[in-house]
Amino acid sequence: MPSTEDPPRVKEPTCPMKDWPRPIQHIDRKDLYTDLESRIQYLHSFLDFSSDDIEALISGSKYIKALIPAIVNIVYRKLLQYDITARAFQTRSTSFEGPLDEFPSEDSPQIAHRKMFLRGYLIKLCSDPSKMDFWEYLDKVGMMHVGQGRQHPLHVEYIHIGACLAFIQDTFTEAILSHPRLHLPRKIALVKALAKVIWIQNDLFAKWYVTDGRDEYGDEMPARGVEEEGFLGGKKVIDADNSQAEDVAA
Question: Would you say the C-alpha torsion 75, 76, 82, 87 has a positive or negative sign?
Fold first, then answer.
């Protein structure tokens, strides 16, 4: 066994960094696929997601929360315009025990139920992104849309996920930029911060859909069991009934 005086082992880069003619930051490819925190740190660094973005999200959360009910209605109106996206709501969700309309509309009980969770999820987006469990939950959201971690599996193809996230971002951007009481610098900061979070969420969806890294590191990727929707590691993080996350309401 090595003695306690041995220096800590440094992970050797997989590319010959010493050959680069300038300083360059090393990113371990395996860690991107097997360690969520390493993946998040890389994305934060690449997108320049900083304490300024965190402050913009937290200080602007009251403005975002005021917009959320209208945005939820706009999003579901859009999703119900197309048969290929509306058909996802013909499948019973893990927590919904009420009746299912065969052809869902905005007044359907399953749509009202899904709206509650979308409100809670959007509120979660403007909670504290400095905590790792914020990103762990966003990763779980990605996992649940590929049929994992649910008692009643649901698989939504990635094209619709990407389109919906883009639509949410566009709707938020227009609402924030046209807000009558926010000064332009705060609008810009809030739009930029929210866009970075949504694009990291987009990556955490893609992580479960694409095969990059899966052949090499699939056996070392963390597995998750079935868990009730709105929970992370046994803790309730989305309160659909009150449309608030615990750490937001505090």
Answer: positive
Pairing assessment for the beta strands 235-236 and 231-232 based on DSSP bridges: antiparallel
Tell which residue, 110, 115, 87, 84, has the closest CA to residue 97. 110
| Per-residue pLDDT tens digits for 116-131 | 889 999 998 878 899 9
Q: How far apart are the C-alpha atoms of 205 and 91, rounded to whole Å? A: 20
Q: Decide if 135 is inside a domain.
A: yes
Residue 21 lies inside a defined structural domain of this protein: no
pLDDT along the chain (250 residues), means of 10: 53 63 86 95 97 94 92 93 80 56 69 85 88 93 74 77 96 95 95 96 93 71 61 62 41
CA–CA separation, 200 and 43 (whole Å): 7
Give 213-217's long-range contacts (Cβ < 8 A, gap of 24+).
213/29, 213/30, 213/32, 213/33, 213/34, 214/33, 216/30, 216/33, 217/30, 217/33, 217/34
Number of domains composing the chain: 1
The boundaries of the domain holding residue 196 are: 29-249
The C-alpha atoms of residue 141 and residue 129 are separated, in whole angstroms, by 15
Q: What is the CATH number of the domain that holds 41?
A: 1.10.490.10
What pLDDT is stored for residue 46 in this prediction? 97
Q: What single string gives the DSSP state of each residue in 67-128? A: HHHHHHHHHHHHHTTSHHHHGGGGSPPSS--S---SS--TTSHHHHHHHHHHHHHHHHHTS-
Widest CA span in the chain: 68
pTM > 0.90: yes or no:
no
